[in-house]
Design brief:
CATH topology: Serine Threonine Protein Phosphatase 5, Tetratricopeptide repeat
Number of domains: 1
Distance between the termini: 83 Å
Largest sheet: none
Oligomer: single chain
Length: 138
């Protein structure tokens, strides 16, 4: 009988403590920091894939970076720019435009390098979105 009472008291004690976080769990700030670090890694990995012409893997990694919550404005712009390039390379013009629009939302002063603007696939799309954005701000 004593064993049964002791066991019952132990179970009640454990149940009462179950709402406290365990000491091994990362805090919200640590989780956010880890997600931010992973997002930056995914962006860098995606750009490397892009440079190796592995566009499917690049798109996955870059989208993962955005989903994880890139916090730096310039990182968001870079991610959207590369997603626009990939969309244009795959002849998905509407998606290309939407990615350029998202880049402008992240940074209204977003621009491409002269070589990027001169690209035959995404240069004209970028110019049209830039003109669209300029009309909106007037």
């Amino acid at each position: 009988m004593m064993r049964l009472i002791s066991l019952a008291l132990l179970l009640v004690s454990l149940a009462a403590c179950s709402h406290f976080p365990s000491f091994g769990s990362p805090s919200a700030a640590e989780q956010e920091k880890t997600a931010h670090k992973k997002a930056k890694q995914d962006l860098a990995t995606g750009i490397a894939y892009y440079e190796d012409a592995n566009y499917i893997a690049a798109q996955r990694a870059i989208q993962s970076a955005l989903n994880l919550g890139l916090t730096d404005r310039q990182d968001k712009v870079e991610a959207r720019k590369y997603l626009a390039f990939i969309a244009c390379l795959n002849q998905r013009q509407a998606e290309c435009k939407n990615q350029f629009r998202a880049a402008f939302e992240a940074d209204p002063k977003f621009t491409l390098s002269p070589a990027e603007i001169g690209h035959p696939l995404w240069g004209p799309v970028f110019k049209s979105v830039r003109e669209e954005q300029a009309r909106k701000t007037k």
